[in-house]
Write a structure and sequence with these properties.
Helix content is 27%, strand content 31%. The chain is α+β, with helices and mostly antiparallel strands and 725 residues long.
Length: 725
């Protein structure tokens, strides 16, 4: 890729489906954390995050023209899955320089299936920019994310996007923001219209208007006229009062109410302090298509959003939980970074995106990579000593070699074979663990199998690569059904995972998920097992009589020996039990394990020469099958304890749906301001697609968790629908 200019780097790499080394830079390497801003773009799918990122790249000269989502030419959405779905599914880092400040813009997916990528972006960032469409309403997921950021004190700002759209309504969107995010949300600018179109922005503090002539992306600044000042007076007063309320100067409010004109420098300083502190949330107006407001947005990111020095470093411990001295963002401190995303490139191998929290990561340095605490997701605890041989600055899918990455910055490592998302990177001499971030539980099961035997080894290898980079994916080999299950966040997540497997050359197909049913006897029944074979020479002879009776649920299996007179020697009694147990595992009716029965051995016959352990094992299995033929076999299905949290408006809908799923409601309670928490017991068969269907029922606002409870009898009305394995 030699010969590409810095401006052409990101554009030149956007059509690539692989990660490539890139020469040139969209953002210079910086040597001081105060010159860095790590900003995560968040908002619902379709709000305009990706195109806003494109507009900022163009405005700062990182690229020379806007990409297109429809054409698959945006900088951040270069993965084949993103081009196919025409939306972000992966976290992308887009660094650029704005004046002397390096801004690492983290573009995140807005669709709930890819919450893992969003959480990774929040972990790597120091502030969040919420993108709200001027055309659509704010969804519940965005409101929940706002509260999540509030809980950790993350600074936030809002940009109302897509103001070029014919149905855009800035005032309605602003009202939505205040309703969703609180009264500390205040606009810094108001749109100025020329006819039906928004042509500029009125700065409420400066009193100037930034006009954006058609076809131009740089504003022309002029003083606001008398009419514009009068129209904005109420909004300006509310903004100033909001700023003064957050000021550390307690005398400002009295001075303002006394009629004193507060200086612009004082107000701007207080805004910057309050935003960085996370107690005031400015609203800006933008249009990615026309460039409206992008210059003002960049100015806010530089001046008001905090540097890494102003944000706490995540808690660290020793490798096995021992206390460790708290870290701070110091390039000269001990090395501590976290892998926030892992991907695999056919040429570069495993590529690890690292947020460095402390110290300086240097090319050719010795590091320790640790991953603990995700064994339940299929990520075994691991530790390895590595050497950094390839250190890069990431620009979405492109990479540029660098020699160091300081605390507060983001870089990429390649050729680190043991690295997985969530791992800690620390110095080899002082290994440590960073407290992991919380990940949502995947609740949609997808059963897969290799199309041929030759694909089985390739499938296992590719799954290891995919799960290394996706902690929201859980891989399970069901011990009862023997199916390989991918637990995904939703259908779109499953589609992306399958596309990645197939993209690595694995011929994989999906099959119906088999619910792990069990069988039991509904009534007592006798069984006669006769295994007699004579084919010349040593034969096989074993006869046993058993009685089978059902036990209470969960009682397990009991074997009782009531042989009288030694008609079956002791060593063969154990063989009968072994044969019965073997048949129980295979099932006696629909091919599912048999549980909760007592088998009593009451009689039988042996032969002095032809009897053997193997013969009596076969006889025991035959006896159980005969008893099953004489009795009614009851299918048992797994039942889960389910807890569903939904807004109050959806409680009736969800309860009715649970009843239709054969669910048994066990209670409901207020969910700490998050609506209502509904408890129920629901057959697992009815929950196979509940992750998708609950989202549809509640407009994406509902969430649930589940835990295995017990196996219950399958009702006669549903038993006919259960197929044999």
């Amino acid at each position: 890729m030699s010969g590409k200019s810095a401006n052409g780097l990101a554009k030149g790499s956007r059509r690539s489906t692989d990660l490539r080394r890139a020469e040139g830079s969209a953002a210079a390497t910086v040597s001081r954390p105060e010159h860095i801003r790590n900003v995560v773009l968040v908002g619902h799918s379709g709000a305009g995050k990706t195109m806003l990122a494109e507009a900022m790249l163009v405005a700062t000269g990182a690229t020379n023209r806007m990409g297109s989502i429809l054409e698959g030419t945006t900088v951040s959405d270069s993965d084949p899955s993103e081009i196919h779905q025409q939306r972000s599914v992966l976290l992308s880092v887009l660094p650029f320089m704005s004046d002397d400040v390096k801004i690492n813009l983290l573009d995140t997916p807005g669709y709930s299936d890819f919450t893992g990528e969003l959480r990774a972006g929040l972990r790597a960032a120091d502030a969040a920019l919420f993108v709200v469409s001027a055309v659509d309403r704010i969804d519940a997921a965005t409101m929940a994310l706002w509260e999540e950021c509030s809980a950790v004190g993350m600074p936030r700002a809002v940009t109302i996007s897509r103001l070029d759209h014919p149905r855009a309504n800035f005032d309605a969107a602003l009202d939505d923001c205040r309703h969703a995010f609180g009264e500390s949300v205040q606009p810094l600018y108001l749109p100025v219209r020329s006819g039906a179109a928004v042509s500029g922005l009125h700065g409420l503090l400066s009193g100037s208007v930034s006009e954006y002539p058609e076809g131009e992306r740089q504003p022309v600044i002029r003083p606001a006229d008398a009419g514009e000042l009068a129209a904005a007076e109420e909004a300006r007063s509310a903004l100033i009062e909001g700023i003064i309320a957050e000021s550390e100067d307690e005398s400002l409010m009295d001075r303002y109410l006394g009629g004193e004109e507060i200086g612009l420098d004082v107000l701007l300083s207080d805004v910057e302090t309050a935003v960085a502190r996370g107690s005031f949330y400015p609203v800006l107006a933008t249009s990615a298509e026309t460039g409206l407001g992008v210059a003002e947005l960049l100015d806010m990111l530089r001046r008001a959003f905090p540097s890494p020095l102003e944000r706490p470093v995540p808690q660290v411990t020793g490798l096995y939980g021992s206390p460790s001295t708290p870290l701070r963002c110091d390039p000269d401190g001990p090395l501590a970074g976290e892998i926030v995303r892992t991907s695999t490139d056919p040429f570069l191998g495993r590529v690890s995106l690292v947020r460095v929290f402390s110290g300086t990561l240097r090319d050719d340095s010795a590091i320790h990579v640790s991953g603990h605490g995700l064994a339940d997701r299929g990520h075994a605890d691991h530790d390895s000593d590595e050497r950094v041989t390839h250190l890069h600055a990431p620009v979405a899918a492109a990479l540029r070699s660098v020699s160091y990455c300081i605390a507060g910055d983001i870089c990429a490592l390649t050729k680190i074979g043991a690295a997985e998302t969530g791992d800690t990177v620390s110095g080899r001499e002082h290994p440590m663990l960073i407290q992991p971030w919380e990940m949502p539980e995947p609740l949609l099961p997808v059963a897969i199998e290799a199309a041929t035997r030759n694909d089985e080894a390739a499938l296992a290898k590719s799954l290891a690569k995919v799960t290394a980079g996706d902690p929201t994916l859980r891989v399970e080999r069901n011990a009862e059904t023997h199916q390989l299950i991918l637990w995904c966040m939703g259908e779109s997540h499953a589609e992306v995972v399958l596309d990645r497997l197939r993209g690595q050359g694995v011929n994989v197909q999906t099959v119906d998920v088999v619910t792990p049913l069990r069988e039991t006897f509904a009534a007592a029944a006798p069984g006669h097992g006769r295994y007699v074979k004579q084919s010349g020479g040593h034969g096989q002879f074993a006869i046993c009589d058993i009685e089978v009776e059902p036990l209470r649920q969960g009682a397990g299996f009991e074997f009782v020996d009531k042989i009288v007179g030694g008609v079956i020697p002791g060593q063969y009694v154990a063989a009968v039990e072994k044969g019965v147990r073997s048949q129980m595992e295979k099932g006696v009716s629909a091919g599912f394990p048999v549980v909760d029965i007592r088998v009593t051995l009451v009689g039988g016959k042996t032969h002095s020469v032809d009897s053997s352990d193997a013969a009596f094992q076969s006889a025991g299995a035959l006896a159980l099958r005969e008893a099953a033929a004489a009795a009614r076999i009851q299918l048992l299905e797994p039942v889960s304890a389910v807890t569903i949290t939904v807004p109050d408006d959806y409680v009736g809908t969800v309860m009715s749906d649970l009843s239709a799923r054969r669910g048994k409601l066990t209670g409901s309670d207020a969910a700490d301001g998050e609506g209502t928490e509904i408890s129920a017991e629901v057959p697992e068969q009815e929950l196979l697609r509940y992750a998708v269907e609950l989202r549809a029922l509640t407009g994406g606002t509902g969430r649930f968790r589940r835990a295995y409870l017990r196996h219950d009898p399958v009702p006669a009305s549903a038993a006919g629908e259960k197929s044999q394995r």
